[in-house]
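User: Could you check the structure of this?
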Amino acid sequence: MTFLGCGKKGGAGGNQKGLSDAESGSTNLTAVNEILHDFVLKGKVIPKDINELITSGFVPSLPTAPPGKKFAIQLLPMGYTVILVDE
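Assistant: Sure, the predicted structure tokens are below.
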């Protein structure tokens, strides 16, 4: 299975100091992709909804999505990725 969207580790939370909203959104998207990747690697199935990462107790919270957007899991032919979609 191919895992897309994984890169440098990022932290949970809101806008990071010195980053524009677009840069912060990209950083947070990378962080959520890494959380999802870790969840699947630990023997869990790909959740149907991104909020299952919280409700399962895997993480206490997710990074903040940019205004007007939310995180969603996109299933791909050979894997998955987290994307931003309109709320």
